[in-house]
Design goal:
By secondary structure, the chain is α/β, with parallel strands linked by helices. It has helices spanning 2-5, 11-22, 36-45, 54-60, 71-82, 100-112, 140-153, 173-185, 199-208, 228-234, 244-263, 276-283, 285-288; strands spanning 28-31, 50-52, 89-92, 117-121, 160-165, 190-193, 213-216, 238-241. The protein is globular and about 60 Å long.
C-alpha cells in the first residue's frame, strides 16, 4: 500500500530529477505548497517541482517571517509535503538555523525527510523576509563557511544545496554578483539572488555567474513579475512562486468568512468552492477501494 498512501518515486529519484531539470534547458517551475494537499495539486497540474516557503510556513502558524520557526518544525512540515508527491521538493532553510554546524545538521535532517534540496541565505541570524528593508547580511567568508558545512555534510551527492544572497538590496548588484561567485566556488549547486528588481538585473546575473540560477517571483515585493518563458530565455534554470498559494487561499477565506458573517450563510459562496467530488478525486479515494472496500464503499452523485 506504500505506493498509494505515499509518493511512488524515491527520494533519490526526486533528487536526480531536480538536478537533471536544472541542467535540462527548460526552466523548472516550483509553486509553493502550503500543505500536502496543495503539493498533490501542483503535481497533478503538471509543474516540475514543489517549493516550501519559510515565510508561508511561519505565516500559517500566525508568525512573522523573522526566524521564529525551528529546524524540526520546518523539516517535519516539509517531510509531510514531500511524502505525498513524486515531484522534487526544495525547501527554505533560512540561515541553516544557527552556526555552520547547524547548517550541516539541517542538510542531514532534510535528506532523512526525503527532501530534494534546500537553500541557505547569507542574512544575519535571525533573518527576515527578503523583500523587507532593514536586512543585515553576514560577511562573505561566514556564508562560505555555512555553505561548505552544508555541502560537506550531505550524504547524497544529488541533494541540491542552493545559496541565496540578499546582498543586492544592501550592497548593490555588483557586490551580490561577487558573493554569488564565491558561493558557487564554495560548492553551491544553485544560486538564488533575492529581490532583483528588473529583467536587466536578472540578465546581469546570468551573464556573470556560470552555475544554475533560481528566480523568485513573489507578489507585492521588489521584483517585477517576469513570466517563466522570459526567465528561461534569459537563461534561468528555476523559478519559485513561494507564497502565491497562501495568498490565493487566504484571500478567498477572508472574503468567504466576511460573507458568512454578514449574511449568516455560505449559500452564495458554494459555486466558488472546490466540490466534494473534486476533493475526493484529488485525494484518490477510489484507489483505496482496490485495497480495502471497507475503507471506500460509497459513491458520489451529482456535483457535490
Amino acid at each position: 500500500m506504500a505506493s498509494l498512501i505515499a509518493a511512488a518515486a524515491s527520494a533519490a529519484d526526486k533528487r536526480i530529477a531536480l538536478r537533471a531539470g536544472l541542467t535540462g534547458g527548460t526552466i523548472q517551475r516550483l509553486p509553493g505548497a502550503i500543505n500536502p494537499l496543495t503539493a498533490k495539486l501542483i503535481q497533478q497540474i503538471g509543474f516540475d517541482g514543489v517549493y516550501v516557503s519559510g515565510g508561508a510556513f511561519s505565516a500559517a502558524l500566525g508568525l512573522p517571517d523573522i526566524g521564529l520557526t525551528t529546524l524540526t518544525e520546518v523539516v517535519a512540515h516539509s517531510q509531510q509535503i514531500a511524502g505525498v508527491t513524486d515531484l522534487p521538493v526544495l525547501i527554505d532553510a533560512d540561515t541553516g538555523f544557527g552556526e555552520p554546524m547547524s547548517a550541516a545538521r539541517t542538510v542531514l535532517a532534510a535528506e532523512d525527510a526525503g527532501i530534494a534540496g534546500l537553500h541557505l541565505e547569507d542574512q544575519v541570524n535571525p533573518k527576515r523576509c527578503g523583500h523587507l528593508d532593514g536586512k543585515a547580511i553576514v560577511s562573505t567568508d561566514e556564508m562560505v563557511r555555512r555553505l561548505r558545512a552544508a555541502v560537506t555534510a550531505r550524504r547524497d551527492p544529488n541533494f541540491v544545496v542552493c545559496a541565496r544572497t540578499d546582498a543586492a538590496g544592501i550592497e548593490g548588484l555588483d557586490a551580490a554578483i561577487e558573493r554569488a561567485k564565491a558561493y558557487a566556488d564554495a560548492g553551491a549547486d544553485l544560486i538564488f539572488t533575492e529581490a532583483l528588481r528588473t529583467e536587466a538585473d536578472f540578465e546581469a546575473f546570468r551573464g556573470a555567474v556560470d552555475v544554475p540560477l533560481l528566480a523568485n517571483m513573489t507578489e507585492f515585493g521588489k521584483s517585477k513579475l517576469v513570466p517563466a518563458q522570459i526567465l528561461q530565455d534569459i537563461g534561468y534554470n528555476a523559478v519559485i512562486y513561494p507564497v502565491t498559494t497562501l495568498r490565493l487561499a487566504m484571500g478567498a477565506i477572508e472574503a468567504g468568512l466576511r460573507e458568512i458573517h454578514a449574511s449568516g450563510t455560505q449559500e452564495g459562496l458554494v459555486d466558488q468552492m472546490q466540490t466534494r467530488s473534486r476533493l475526493y478525486e484529488l485525494l484518490e479515494y477510489e484507489r483505496y477501494n482496490e485495497f480495502d472496500s471497507g475503507v471506500f464503499n460509497f459513491t458520489l452523485g451529482g456535483n457535490q
